[in-house]
Amino acid sequence: MRSDWQKPAPGVLRVENGTAVMLYDPFLAGNLTPAWFEPRHWQAQGAVVGAARGRGATLFFRADDHEYALRHCRRGGLIARVLGDRYLCLSEHAARPVREFLLTHYLWRLGLPVAPPVAVRLVQSGLIGRGDLVTRRINAAQTLAMRLVAGDLEVRDWIAVGRTIAQFHAAGVRHADLNAHNILFDAQRNVHLIDFDRGAVQARGLWCDANLVRLRRSIFKICDALPTPRFNETLWTALLAGYRDATTQNA
């Protein structure tokens, strides 16, 4: 497994503030302060432009002529009922929120289509830590799930999804939770991947097929709740065709 992504890239700044440590890219947020991680700060500024729900609450705000997403990191699955937003932190760079920032920043520097990672904050208490992430908001983004429900997907979109996934696999990027909610379309229908919690960079293997199987299961789960069919084997074949075509080009 490649490990060069597991440390901050040159230019990433580290700031300590009490029990908190912040890592950020000054190219994406030149005047970042601890207030960036506080929803009340943006609410008081009248800068909030939206919100979203997921494993962690996400707040969208505007600053310095850009829109950003602030997400408080939370665990998923059954363990979330016990640990919620708490993570084991044996070391700063091993903490899951920090690892997610470092991996996403690595992918952004590679030129892969991800939400530009601005900053991460880790607040530690002994071996327990809590984290927050700030990313640039993707313009007019809608998830694959949203477009599927709206019936706003064409064959070319499924091909684009397959090609994008192949780009990440060619770079050895293992997404730990590739589903229809973590694939975004921007205003120009370009595809992006988000949420790299527990992700890694490693040699290609059976996990590539497992990624696709997980995505397929996610799509059909959404479709099962819809009143009319929005997905079929022809569209899945289009996705796989895009994946195979991009895989051949990247070989």
Question: What does this protein structure show overall?
Answer:
With 251 residues, the chain is α+β, with helices and mostly antiparallel strands. 34% of the residues lie in helices and 24% in strands. It has two domains: 4-136; 142-250, Transferase(Phosphotransferase), domain 1. Strands 1, 2, 3, 4, 5, 6, 7 and 8 form an eight-stranded antiparallel β-sheet that branches. Helix 5 runs parallel beside helix 7 (233-250).
Give the helix/strand layout:
Layout: E1 13-17, E2 20-24, H1 39-45, E3 48-52, E4 58-63, E5 66-72, H2 80-83, E6 87-88, H3 96-110, E7 117-125, E8 128-136, E9 142-143, H4 144-150, H5 155-170, E10 173-174, E11 183-185, E12 191-193, E13 200-201, H6 206-224, H7 233-250
Describe this protein with a few key phrases.
251 residues, eight-stranded antiparallel β-sheet, globular
Short structural summary:
With 251 residues, the chain is of the alpha+beta class. Helix content is 34%, strand content 24%. The chain folds into two domains: 4-136; 142-250, Transferase(Phosphotransferase) domain 1 (Transferase(Phosphotransferase), domain 1), CATH 1.10.510.
